[in-house]
Amino acid sequence: MPDHWHGLVELGDESLDRVVGRFKAAVTRAMNRTSSRSYPVWQRTFHDRALRREDDLKAAARYLVANPLRAGLATSVGDYPYWNAVWL
Fold this sequence. Notes:
Blueprint: H1 16-33, H2 54-70
């Protein structure tokens, strides 16, 4: 998505706050390296939703993968370069 990121993350021993913080830092560093910009990319907060049952996992993955279609960024799932999910 052009102005936000949706992800389905399986947590190990690290907290979600730590995982999201590391992700945001890595993306910001990569963006700053490839351009002349040096300002924040992300908002400080994030929204999360915990999945509880295995059945919910596939439905959540399908919902996330279809977001570019709903936003009009692609005409089919395979047209969007970041569409894949290991849970599908």
